[in-house]
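Researcher: I'm preparing a figure for a lab meeting and need a structural model of a single chain. I don't have an experimental structure, so a prediction will have to do for now. The sequence is pasted below. Please return the structure as tokens so I can convert it later.
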Amino acid sequence: MTTPSPENHPAPPVRVAVVDDDPLVRAGLALMLGGADDIRIVGEAADGAGVADLVDRVRPDVVLMDIRMPVVDGLTATEALRARPDAPEVIVLTTFHADEQVLRAIRAGAAGFVLKDTPPAQIVESVRRVAAGDPVLSPAVTRQLMARAAGTGPRGGRDDRVDRADRARLRIAALGEREREVAIAVARGRSNAEIAAALYLSVATVKTQVSRILTRFDFNNRVQIALLVHDSGLLDDDAAEDDDVG
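Model: Understood. Here is the structure written out token by token.
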């Protein structure tokens, strides 16, 4: 008996649910994603209040989540969804390039965000990447989000920033020296290949180090590593050291 070839058993399509209070947006997303052979729209919801039931019913791999909805906003829905066991990945939909509210979604475990006016092909590719475990935040966007994390939100007062920095430093202290170097490089928006070149490591070793950091802190993606390093102030410390050396 011959073993079936992989070609005879293609990977199942990525199951996607769309959550947005605008029916035109939902229809547009369903249309553009439905045209991809490897993606299947399995359900929709008009508000964050319906996300839990939707996920229980259709078991999506990825949820496209609007931020601003009238009853339960997308941030609250993302936090609740990502706290569940075997939660689907979440891509936050926004109309702003660096919406400070996206930070809350990233901290809750969202895999990234896309702009609603992103070209259709890029949205399709974002869904594929997130389903494969790759966040969809570019280094430039990551840097913008980290700048927002400095304390511009409603609870972003000085005391809150100090407490967050102390907590972040305690967590960073649990890392080994090499893990710390990799974490800082991630926070600077460097790719695995760039980190490998800078630290004289193989790309495979960098991937292993990143995976260890994610596991240690129970993180979902490298953006959360970047935010932790930013909160700890390590990027500022390194910049000061560079100035002293110069």
